[in-house]
Amino acid sequence: MDTPAIATDGLTRRFGEFVAVDAVNLHVAPGQFFGFLGPNGAGKSTTIRMLTGLLAPTAGRVEILGLDLAVHPVEVKRQIGVVPEGMALFGRLTGAEYLDFVGRMYGLDRATAARRAADLLDFMELADQPRKVVADYSHGMQKKLALAAAVIHGPRVLFLDEPFEGVDAVASNTLKAMLQRMIARGATIFLTSHVLEIVERLCSHVAIIHQGRLVAQGSLEELRAGVRGSGAGTGTMTLEQIFLQIVGGTRDTTQELSWLG
Description:
By secondary structure, this protein is α/β, with parallel strands linked by helices. Helix content is about 35%, strand content about 25%. The mean pLDDT is about 90.
């Protein structure tokens, strides 16, 4: 049996008395495009921060590619790429300078880092203004640069937290094609997004977290079968329908605000 690309055992994070993530057991196989979903405040970003070593868990453990993250943090981080929700970019560098810096930090030699930086800037359509500093990039341009930085070293596991937010349709299509090629070459991608149509189109497997607890995990067909088995759905359900059924999206949508006219 293949070693999981991502595995957690009882992963928990508390902030004082508040339990943000409660005993989560994740299993992501190598080569999967895995969607991680949940309502606002469900614990998605906190989970990703623990999976990538940015936040220590209160309890439980994380394994990436068979390595215990707490025991082998440097080895793990050399093999993963991360696009966090809040992009931590160096605003006074140009795009090329930033990518060269990131590549060198991952251990690429100077020539390889420069070549890959140039390739990525061209691919992301960021090469036409070489002297422009990152602080002057638009939000969408910064998203593309953050993704370029996350893949410059050829990671085996890529974590993406809302990667398409603020990215136009043309750029989004380019990024999706790049991610699909990474999957075809054996990489594993762990994606969070509030745009369920994107997750349904890209991901083969999904987990849903609600109020800090993992409430569903499996392939899209397994999730559909589970919802049908509960008597809650018939036919081919969309991911949005599955998601709302599982997390209890039952708010009365007929309620009106009279002052809106």
